[in-house]
Amino acid sequence: MNKLPKQRFHLVFSLIMGAMMVFLMTFVITLVNVGMPPDFLLRWAKAFVVAYVVAVPVIYFIAPKARQITARFVELP
Question: What's the pTM value of the predicted model, to 2 decimals?
Fold first, then answer.
């Protein structure tokens, strides 16, 4: 399998982290807010799409700063 160049790491990381985080959080919050009605999957999908569109740019722009702050408190591997 051909890998993307390392310059794309942060973008791909943001897309994957966004999907994982939003998948779990929208499921939990939708379940807490509406229970398990017949249209649960539709409601969850709608919440996922909206949250993903917001989360990916936030992760892309905020993650470097979060890493920088973390490095002040934790030794780098």
Answer: 0.84
